Amino acid sequence: MRTREQDVEPFVNLSELTEIELLIMRRMREFTIGEHRSLFHGSGFDFVGLRDWQAGDRMSQIDWAQSTLTNFSPMVVRDYEQRSTATVVAIADNSLSTRCGIDGIPIAAAIARTIGTIGMSAVFFQDLFGLITFDARFDQLAAIRPRIGKNQVIHCLEAYQFGEGLTLLKRADSLSMSLAGFMRKTSMVPVISDFLFDEAGSVMQELAQLNSMHDVFIGAFC
Fold this sequence. Notes:
Layout: H1 14-27, H2 29-32, E1 45-52, H3 64-69, E2 76-82, E3 87-93, E4 101-102, E5 105-106, H4 107-124, E6 128-134, E7 141-147, H5 150-162, E8 167-168, H6 175-182, E9 188-193, H7 200-210, E10 215-220
Parallel strand pairs: 3-6, 3-9, 9-10
Antiparallel strand pairs: 1-2, 4-5, 6-7, 7-8
């Protein structure tokens, strides 16, 4: 895990994310130029419950009355979900093998850029975007709940690059069940990895099981 204290450059910085955003806007210009019917459906936000404060939460989400009951440790926030056309949850490889690469550019940099590209595409269509990271043996799965907006993409990138704001997932009987248990509704699930880990075949079988409930597709880097 990289930390800010190590004074290392991020795999993707804000200026690069802006370039990705502009590229997506150019590719989608037929949807953004001239008169067209709105792509977005539904309106407003649905209240889904209370939870502990996490990095990236807005001050406006804090439930001050409930937080006083916990003596503000932790802070309690109201969790809302905006209706959208789709939910996208990127599953990203954060194992040590992704720190290898060529010409000084690690595989993890390509994975981070892919997270940014998929995330900003979700922002364009006002879709929910979330992140799950895994290690080489899938012993530790950590995640960020899907939300809408560019700040959410930045939050997910920082989580992947520096391990900030991630919540450990509850483990189930299988990998596919652990991943499915995190997703509240049918989602698009890009799996971004170098697949340089043991028993890759069995992992693919688990992802095939997940594909029976969600739209799973693979992005491999090597």
